[in-house]
Amino acid sequence: MYFSVILIVASLLLWGFHYYIFQDLHHILIYGIHDIAFVPLEVLLVTVVIHELLERRERRKIRENLNMLVGSFFSELGNDLLTTFSKYDRNFEEVREDLSIREDFNEEEFSKVKEKLKTYNSNIKVTEHELIELKKYLTENKGLLVNVLQNQNTLEHEPFTDTLWATYHLTEELEARKDISELPEEDIEHLEGDIERAYNDITERWIDYMEHQKEKYPYLFSLALRKNPFKKDSSPIIGQ
């Protein structure tokens, strides 16, 4: 507020000084009105155009940070979970070939995979031993899930947030059961449903992630291809 008053007073003083020197009120009025006439355009430029440019820059920065988060999730946890869950899936062979993404995949082929997954019904079946191992793995990596969920950039991507919550919920369900070796069949079926939800969500996000890498970061896409969690012989080493 004080700064605005100072600017206004400074303008009045300069106009007064101009009149004192040149004694030309007509000239002051012409150029004063001329300058005022351009104020709306200047406001438009500053508040709309420049603001939009700054917002675009901020959105781009958020997308880049989010991509790093998603990449970290799959590198540290997501890929391993997809490999594990696909082993639980009795129907997985129906989509194994579809999920064998190739380097020459284009937008149309990614869309076909997404459409196939919409009609695909996974069939999760787990043993008590597998549940014990899964509980141990998720408990050990719970901190990573919490850290990603707490990151403000995660909120900018609702589907990814939902995927994290599905995975976190599965972790909580398993942790709540102290002795998994004596669970009734009905409870195991409930856990299988939780696994299936997380499995389907993570798979969808993985397809989105791979498509984004293909478009924006070809070198990262190359590594992600070699680490495909759905391939039996996946290896980061080129030539294997």
Automatic annotation (TrEMBL):
Domain of life, per lineage: Archaea
Transmembrane domains' residue ranges: 5-22, 28-54
Annotated keywords: Membrane, Transmembrane, Transmembrane helix
Record's protein name: Membrane protein
